[in-house]
Design goal:
The structure holds three protein chains of three kinds. By secondary structure, chain B is mainly α. Chain B has a single domain, classed as Helix Hairpins. Chain B is built from three helices and no strands. In chain C, α1 packs antiparallel against α2 and α2 runs antiparallel to α3. The chains are: A mainly alpha, B mainly alpha, C mainly alpha. Chains in contact: A-B, A-C. Chain B: Belongs to the CPA3 antiporters (TC 2.A.63) subunit C family.
């Protein structure tokens, strides 16, 4: 047994232990912390599976931003009465356990019984990479071969933000999301919020730029930009914008909007929806990605900030 | 034992655990976490099948990878929406119970709606 | 030359792994928040620093080496800030430190 295999077994065991802890531990806060650790270790599994693009996304969004979201919710729900809920009876739990084990066993069987060699689209995706001029096959699939998925996913982000905003109470309608964060302006958090974004913005743009040829891309870069913005908000150096701001709304629709315009352009002038003309493929993809990284950063940050809670006048 | 088998077992177990937690845990926030666990297990299964399918010379199939990246972002936005709903429920009703006939603790919403 | 580089990597990364292990044991075993933070920062600063030092000879290019060093510096910055914040919260009002 090689060292790599031992490492993989230990990694899988720790991930599994954290998953069990997340489900079984009585306190919600501990479960949340367990889930954040789980998300970060799952990113390591993705590295072992040679999917570095996904590992970056999982670490930035699944572990990082998702962790902030869950921890924030757990902290705000701390005063919720835990006795108001009743655990289901033993029979229900037994049935649930049986059902879950059955599904897990079926999945294990499906994995072990995959035909060898398994079906794959990798050679096809790499063989057509010349058409876009990008060397990273994952970016090619995201932005060209399955561009429809990515465009609709931007629409999902937009719908989610509309859903979150519409949960505002009447006085806060169109106001600023989340509580106003106060922190010592000469404290260590304010210091970090002044120092780190200068580095973080460069790293975010670098990861976005390098995504053309190496692992990275608009999602990962956008998540880093969003976290930098949130850091500045949490340090009290700036406030969240009111959601009725037109400039903000323009940024939110820029990504899917440009995608749609290019798609319809392909339909009118070219062979099909989202068909890029060969000569313009790379500049078009780059343009869409620039609009997308702004949209992703703004949407992820605002999803974390939550529903509007303060009216604009105050 | 190859890495595909090891992580495949792990992913299947995560799906099972997530499903169990989703059904049995009464607290909504715990249900959301369990749902995310289930989702992460499903994403891992995608990655494992992509790894199995990658022919010599490719580390992993790029198509399932792209689907998983899209999926992670969609799962995050769904979680954010669910948490916003939960916080609003807590703000309005003063508790986070999902029972239909549950008595509301805090009375009318102080923010008024 | 290659042997010397590999030896340096093995020694430094092992030492770094030892500090991570010690830090984790301290995190689990120490009685209160401040002592746990002390253990954790040892793992962060020394452990990560030694692992990066050990990986530097294997980086291959100047760019790779600079990236590794910047990861260490960012880790130091984040670790120092977060432990300050946790310690301050623990001192003010939180559960007895």
């Amino acid at each position: 047994m090689s060292i790599a295999t031992v490492f993989e077994i230990v990694l899988a065991a720790v991930v599994l232990g954290l998953a069990i802890w997340t489900i079984a531990v009585p306190e919600t806060y501990s479960a949340t912390v367990g889930f954040v650790a789980y998300g970060l270790l799952v990113a390591l599994i993705w590295v072992r599976l040679d999917a570095v693009d996904v590992a970056l996304t999982e670490a930035a969004i699944g572990g990082g931003l998702g962790g902030v979201l869950l921890l924030g919710a757990a902290a705000r729900l701390r005063n919720a009465d835990p006795t108001a809920v009743e655990t289901p009876c033993k029979l229900v739990r037994l049935c649930a356990a049986a059902l879950s084990s059955l599904i897990a066993a079926a999945l294990v069987a499906a994995i072990l019984l995959l035909p060898d060699p398994a079906p794959t689209l990798a050679p096809a995706a790499v063989a057509k990479a010349w058409a876009t001029g990008l060397a990273n096959p994952v970016t090619n699939v995201l932005m060209a071969f399955r561009a429809m998925d990515t465009m609709l996913e931007k629409v999902v982000l937009l719908l989610a933000i509309v859903g979150v905003w519409s949960l505002a109470s009447d006085p806060a309608w169109g106001g600023r999301p989340g509580p106003r964060h106060e922190a010592d302006p000469h404290g260590v958090l304010a210091f970090l919020a002044r120092l780190l974004p200068s580095v973080g913005i460069v790293v975010g743009i670098y990861i976005f730029w390098t995504g053309a040829d190496h692992p990275g891309g608009a999602f990962q870069g956008g998540a880093i930009l969003a976290s930098m913005w949130l850091l500045v908000v949490m340090a009290g150096l700036t406030d969240t914008p009111p959601v009725s701001s037109r400039r903000l709304r323009f940024i939110l629709v820029a990504g899917p909007g440009l995608f749609l315009v290019v798609g319809i352009g392909g339909l009118c002038l070219g062979p099909a929806f989202l068909a890029y003309p060969l000569a313009l493929a790379k500049p078009l993809i780059l343009g869409i990605e620039v609009a997308m990284i702004l949209t992703i950063a703004a949407t992820l940050g605002l999803l974390l900030a939550g529903a509007p809670e303060r009216s604009e006048q105050r | 034992m190859s890495s595909v088998t090891v992580f495949g077992l792990c992913a299947a177990a995560a799906v099972g655990l997530g499903l169990y937690g989703l059904i049995t845990n009464p607290q909504p926030l715990r249900k959301i976490i369990a749902f995310n666990l289930l989702g992460s297990g499903v994403f891992l299964l995608f990655g494992i099948i992509g790894r199995r399918g990658a022919a010599a010379g490719f580390g992993n199939d790029p198509v399932p990878q792209a689907l998983v990246i899209t999926g992670v972002v969609v799962a995050f936005s769904a979680t954010a929406l669910a948490i916003a709903l939960l916080l609003r429920l807590f703000q309005t009703a003063g508790s986070t119970t999902l029972r239909s006939g549950a008595p509301t603790g805090a009375g009318p919403d102080p923010s008024g709606d | 030359m290659s042997l010397a580089r590999d030896m340096m990597t093995i020694v430094a990364v092992s030492a770094g792994a030892f500090f991570f292990l010690a830090g984790t044991v301290g995190l689990l075993r120490f009685p209160n928040t401040l002592t746990r933070l002390h253990a954790l920062t040892k793992a962060d600063n020394l452990g990560l620093g030694l692992v990066v030092l050990g990986l530097l000879p294997q980086a291959g290019s100047l760019r790779g080496g600079l990236k590794l060093i910047s990861i260490w510096l960012l880790g130091l910055l984040a670790g120092a800030t977060v432990s300050q914040l946790i310690a301050r919260t623990a001192r003010q009002g939180g559960p007895a430190p």
